[in-house]
Specification:
Blueprint lengths: L2 H25 L4 H31 L1 H27 L18 H23 L8 H24 L4 H24 L6 H31 L3 H19 L1
């Protein structure tokens, strides 16, 4: 199988986890406490991937300066895009309660939520494609982190969409579209940077890492803390430890 096609397929697997979560939320009434706990766990998994896979890889590949520039740049880019989407109704796109506005309450919020969900998923998929550049094999810890964290993201966000009265065609149209976009992003991450310098690869990897960490702090942790409260830190720690164990086992 061509490596570029493998990159797209792994991106589809990672993005497809969002669709799995959405399907569960639509057909099964999951208690909000469970949604929040799984979200906290997924946040811990992603934090571990950012620290031990993305930033470590970026620093080793292009040096600390390139990694730092990309990391801060990714955080600022996500902040700016997220702020713009929040003004259009996408602030609570990962919330499973009644925080998401309906289209009647805020016109255009449906499109903003869809774009926001895409914004959350693309950096992770690009990283999957980048991981194939070294040795042609996907990074198992990164893939595990993306999949484990995407299931609760899709579950929580879809539950909130359903509560706000959005129809099934909108909900599943969003998640199918994002799964396909994830495949494209992973392909682009591999194909566009195959001949890139180590410094550029490091910067792009760190940009994705900064965007992911900012997304965790801005959207995942607030949803988790709203219900799990003082248990949020412990559950997040368990998620971190799980991903770290996968990293150690694979090294």
């Amino acid at each position: 199988m061509p490596v570029w096609l493998e990159a797209a397929l792994w991106g589809l697997v990672g993005g497809g986890a969002l669709l799995v979560g959405a399907l569960v939320a639509w057909f099964v009434r999951v208690p909000q406490a469970v949604v929040a706990a799984v979200m906290a766990f997924g946040a811990g998994v992603l934090i571990s991937a950012v620290a031990f896979d993305l930033m470590e890889e970026a620093a080793d590949t292009g040096g600390l300066a390139a990694a730092a520039v990309g990391f801060v740049g990714g955080a600022l880019a996500f902040l700016a895009a997220n702020a713009a989407l929040a003004r259009r109704g996408a602030r609570h796109r990962k919330r499973s309660g009644e925080q998401q506005p309906s289209e009647d309450e805020q016109s255009g919020s449906g499109a903003a939520i869809a774009v926001g969900a895409l914004l959350d998923g693309v950096p992770e998929s690009v990283v999957l494609g980048l991981s194939l550049l070294s040795g042609g094999v996907v990074s198992v810890p990164v893939l595990a982190a993306v999949f484990i964290s995407n299931v609760p993201e899709g579950l929580s966000s879809a539950a909130g969409m359903k509560r706000s009265g959005r129809p099934a065609r909108y909900v599943f149209g969003v998640w199918v579209g994002i799964a396909l976009a994830s495949a494209l992003a992973a392909f682009v991450g591999y194909a566009a940077l195959g001949d890139a310098s180590p410094q550029l690869t490091a910067v792009i990897t760190a940009v994705a890492a900064g965007a992911i960490l900012t997304m965790i702090a801005d959207t995942m942790i607030p949803e988790a803390f709203e219900t799990t409260r003082t248990w949020t830190g412990v559950i997040t720690t368990l998620g971190f430890l799980t991903a770290f164990a996968i990293e150690v086992a694979g090294s």
